[in-house]
Amino acid sequence: MGGYENGDSPAAVAGEDGVVLGVDGGTTNTVCVCLPAAMPPPESPAAVPILARAVAGCSNRNSVGESTALETLEQVMTQALTMANTDRSAVRAVCLAVSGVNHPSDQQRMLEWIGSLFPGNAKFYVENDAVAALASGTMGKLHGCVLIAGTGSIAYGVTEDGKVARAAGAGPVLGDWGSGYGIAAQALTAVIKAHDGRGPQTSLTGDILEKLELSSPDEIIGWTYADPSWARIAALVPVVVSSAEDGDEVANKILHDSVQELADTVIAVVRRLRLCGEDEKDKFPLVLVGGVLEGNKKWDISGEVIKCISKVFPGTVPIWPEVCMFVTMPF
To answer: Any stretches that span the bilayer, and where are they (predicted)?
Structure first.
């Protein structure tokens, strides 16, 4: 849920009541905001008095390893506190919403680690980033479904009585199809297959070679495995979208298949929780987050996903958050 730069925050001053930290940890980047602990409930996202905002790299432990992920989290929190002219002793609460936190044991390890960094009277919350993404679209109310499609993908839902369900979010090896990584990996595979004569010719070949400044599809193999980080691969999504907009059949098939994968991910969660009611016609909020779902002009991925879901659940109410999770999570 990026798009931020360090220091990009409105003027505000930390008070004697201390501060709270909210961290949105993703596979592409990690964002931390520092907020006054005495802040009243905001009437709108624009009313939140952000003291400081800091940005760092990937903090998904499944992508970069636990040690590097924790280093990134500590770095971004320290940076936010420094920018707010305060320190760890002023922290009253920390909310970590991090991709890759998939099991209670993951939460417990993170809670023990974060507790070693800050005062003993501080409150700590650790969740998967999908929980925070849902809250970001509902101003803190955990009800409905969220679809994240960035470097990875996940659908996460919560009923009004607290039942939860998720689908996907298992990483590229186990199939985050429809994610940025999934789209780009299929495009790279299509280029190799076309080069081998095992697949149709595609303009993706020339477009990707130009983007990567390579001269032959043979070089793609070395480029891919030189640094197979998920975000690096996923960064090729705009090339795939551009090729599809120019009419390439292979690129269009990749995007259509990805749309269906994302829609099926949401449908699975909504059905499991019966968010749509017994007759599958009740209204429910669907929060959409992530770079794959954002603003393509001609090839509107999020629009196509919503069409697929709405055919099954006509009560789908799509929401695009105005603000990232850390403003709306209940500290």
So the answer is: none
Query: Could you tell me the pTM of the whole model?
Result: 0.82
Which residue is it, tokens 């949105």? 24
CB 102 within 8 A of CB 169: yes
pLDDT per residue as tens digits for the range 272-284: 999 999 999 999 9
Same domain, 43 and 176: no
**Same domain as 148, residue 119:** no
29-64 pLDDT, tens per residue?
A: 899 999 999 877 666 666 678 899 999 998 988 888
Domains in the chain, number? 2
Domain range enclosing 81: 19-127
CA distance 87 to 32: 14
Q: Is-contact 275 284, C-beta < 8 A?
A: yes
Bridge partners (DSSP) of residue 286 are: 145, 318
